[in-house]
């Protein structure tokens, strides 16, 4: 099965979805591929998206419902109720303001960056009284 030389992925350095060149596979590890951003030349190791037996569709009944207060693992399948779409977590990043984010490849929407492990704001003492 032939692979394309490029893939549209989210670049952590550019903070944009860009065309990334497939550089090669990680030695000794199955399913991990090195990608290089065609814009900034940033190189990142990501999981290869593997199609499963049911035509590449993810099973929403086995997915975890997305909630910004939860933490997710790379490879975990999540369901976003607002978008009615299921996706797989590809990568974890930090945003410019220091919060945590996940890159999710959704079936309908493609790759999106979502906030995770969001801490609820605590009220200032002067506002409580």
Features:
129 residues, mainly beta, four-stranded antiparallel sheet, 1 helix
Question: Could you please describe the fold and organization of this structure?
Answer:
With 129 residues, this protein is mainly beta. Helix content is 3%, strand content 44%. The strands form two sheets. A five-stranded mixed β-sheet has the order 5-6-7-8-9, with no helix packed on it. Strands 1-2-3-4 form a four-stranded antiparallel β-sheet, with no helix packed on it. Strand 6 and strand 7 form a beta hairpin. The chain starts with 5 loop residues before the first strand and ends with a helix.
Question: Gist?
Answer:
This protein is mainly β and 129 residues long.
Write the layout of secondary structure elements.
Blueprint: E1 6-11, E2 16-25, E3 32-37, E4 43-47, E5 64-65, E6 77-80, E7 85-94, E8 100-106, E9 110-116, H1 125-128
Q: How far from one another are the termini?
A: 66 Å
Estimated radius of gyration: 17 Å
Number of helices: 1
Record field, number of beta strands: 9
Largest sheet: 5 strands, mixed
Query: Ranges with pLDDT <50 over ≥5 residues?
Result: none
Strand residues, percent: 35-45%
Helix content estimate:
under 10%
Shape: globular
Oligomer status: single chain
> What spatial order of strands do you see in the largest sheet?
5-6-7-8-9
Average pLDDT taken over every residue: 80
Order of helices and strands: EEEEEEEEEH
Classification by helices and strands: mainly beta
């Amino acid at each position: 099965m032939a692979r394309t030389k490029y893939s549209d992925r989210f670049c952590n350095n550019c903070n944009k979805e860009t065309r990334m060149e497939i550089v090669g596979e990680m030695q000794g590890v199955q399913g991990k591929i090195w990608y290089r951003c065609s814009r900034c030349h940033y190189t990142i190791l990501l999981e290869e998206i593997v199609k499963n037996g049911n035509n590449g569709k993810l099973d929403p009944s086995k997915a975890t419902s997305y909630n910004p207060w939860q933490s997710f693992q790379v490879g975990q399948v999540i369901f976003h109720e607002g978008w009615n779409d299921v996706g797989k977590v590809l990568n974890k990043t930090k945003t410019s303001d220091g919060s945590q984010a996940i890159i999710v490849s959704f079936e309908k929407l493609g790759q999106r960056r979502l906030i995770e492990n969001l801490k609820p704001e605590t009220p200032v003492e002067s506002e409580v009284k």
